[in-house]
Amino acid sequence: MRTLSQDIKKQEGKEVELFGWVNSRRDHGKLIFIDLRDRTGITQIVFSPINKELHSQAEKLHSEWVIRVRGMVKKRPPRMENPKITSGRYEVSANFLEVLAEAKNPPFALETNGLEINEELRMKYRYLDLRRPRLQKNLRTRAKVIKFIRDFLSEKEFIEVETPILSKSTPEGARDYLVPCRLEPGKFYALPQSPQQYKQLLMVAGLEHYFQIARCFRDEDTRGDRQPEFTQLDLEMSFASQEEILNLVEELYAAIIKKLFPEKKISKKPFPRLTYKEAREKYGSDKPDLRQNKNDPDELAFAFIVDFPMFEWKEQEKRWDAVHHPFTLPQVKDKKDLLARFKKNPSAILAYQYDFVLNGYEIGGGSIRIYKPELLQAVFEIMGNKPKEIKEKFGHLLEAFKYGVPPHGGIAGGLDRFIAILQNEPNIREVIAFPKTGDGRDLLMEAPAQVNPSQLKELHLKISDHKIK
Ligand code: ASP
Questions:
Q1: What is the pLDDT of residues 325-368, one digit of tens each?
Q2: Do the beta carbons of residue 436 and residue 220 sit within 8 Å?
Q3: pLDDT the model gives residue 66
Q4: In angstroms, what CA-CA distances link 239 with 67, 78, 84, 408?
Q5: For 260-276, how does the pLDDT look when each residue is reduced to its tens digit (9 = 90+)?
Q6: Lining residues, ligand 1, CB within 6 Å
């Protein structure tokens, strides 16, 4: 039976069997020391020259070889203890060794934090890069945060629902990734920029409390620390006020910090609520960094920014657009009031829209939604959509809202950024198992890639650009 490094301390005087990687080999006179690494840590294995055959086998071992070892657990002599590793007071005196897999020399060091290595090389060999303890810890912490969220929200009677990935365009303000449809030539699915419309439809369906750890896809030009696909904690609630939604988010995030990051200090509770106007006037930003000491990695300054403007002018497209998205409820009495106020001063209309901010980063955003079909229709029209387009793009939602729709609202939080901040990482790629480059390439799989001409034919697609090889 396999014993893990973390359990060596309970096995003194017993024979154990270990599986793992050779972290390092040191030859001290006649003794050979191997640091064996498994997912729980490191164990020192000693090969003595008494067993000649075994000893010469051990002489051949190299870093990153995968081995199986049997031996006796012994206390190390007092001066030889290593307090840095969990099994540091013990070592295993080997009596059997099997090499399960040899390994080429890794293209870069694995024992450093890796940030000094060319990132493209790290991405190409991500499966090796992920062996470093820093990245292992990031992925484990990420999994713990997600599990905590699931438990917390399930406890509060939220139901986790998976929504489709092959879907139709939803207006979150970015370009869609399109997927051609084989069975209906010339038609395309769009990958969801967020589950926005589905989660609203789930409210019409009477679920009342929904959440999802959702993958979102946005085809945006390289801009800072973004990924074409990223993960959101997406949630939606029926019959809840803005304040109730913000309170729930605050309770959840404070609980995550208390349970999983006890070394961190939240600057202010309840989390400050600033209006968009206040934030801009006082801090010149709608995502102000409210930390008292910006050099302190353990300080967390959460805040909510509320009362965003509903509309903004898009100079390029010469039209008014929703600041958040068109499903956001403007702070108006009804359709008539909206139109009258729009005529007077469009940019003065506020919305029940909020952003969630941490240490100067936007880590979430959401809104109370329009649930009156005629008001939603008016917002679509203000944004420049013709009635026919509205029917084509949003007919399903307008129709659904005719069958008894509860007032509802929600929020979505970016998990990659949140975890990167908590792990004191310089960018979100460090907390994503297989991130892409800034221009959207997966260097490990070499995606995007050309496809077989027969696949194109099946999809009724022709590549017309002669510049494409
Ligand atoms: N779907 C929105 C977003 O991704 C969030 C929301 O309004 O709930 O920004």
A1: 999 999 999 999 999 999 999 999 999 999 999 999 999 999 99
A2: no
A3: 98
A4: 58, 65, 53, 6
A5: 999 999 999 999 999 99
A6: 172, 194, 196, 365-367, 410-412
CA-closest candidate to residue 243, choices 161, 361, 366: 366
- Tell me the C-alpha distance between 108 and 368, whole Å: 49
Residue 224 CA to ligand 1 centre (angstroms): 20
Exposure string for 23-43, b = 16+ CB within 10 A, e = fewer? bbbeeeeeebbbbbbbeebbb
Instruction: Give bridge partners of residue 442 from the DSSP assignment.
Output: 447
155 three-state secondary structure: helix
Contact residues for 282 (Cβ-Cβ < 8 A; gap 6+) = 274, 288
DSSP state of 309: B
Of the candidates 411, 351, 396, 413, the one whose C-alpha atom is nearest the C-alpha of residue 204 is: 396
For residue 31, give the nearest of 5, 11, 14, 51 by alpha carbon.
51
What is the distance in A from the centroid of ligand 1 to the CA of 227?
A: 17
All residues at 6 or more sequence positions from 293 whose CB lies less than 8 Å from its CB, including other chains: 299
Give the predicted TM-score (pTM) of the model.
Answer: 0.95
331 C-alpha to ligand 1 centroid (Å): 18
Domains along the sequence of the chain with CATH: 5-101 (2.40.50.140), 127-431 (3.30.930.10)
Q: How far apart are CA 208 and CA 200, in angstroms?
A: 10
Per-residue DSSP letter, 10: G
The mean pLDDT value for 389-410 works out to 95
Radius of gyration over alpha carbons of the chain, in Å?
Answer: 28
3-state percent helix, strand, coil for the chain, nearest multiple of 5: 30, 30, 40
Alpha helices, DSSP H only, in 131-241?
133-155, 196-204
Whole-number Å distance between alpha carbons of 34 and 62: 9
CA 98 to chain centre: 39
Q: What are phi and psi of 417, to 5 degrees?
A: -65, -45
**Cα(422)–Cα(298) distance, rounded to whole angstroms?**
8
Ligand 1, atom nearest to 410 Cα: 8
How far apart are alpha carbons 427 and 421 in whole angstroms?
8
| Sign of the torsion angle spanned by Cα atoms 346, 350, 351, 355 | positive
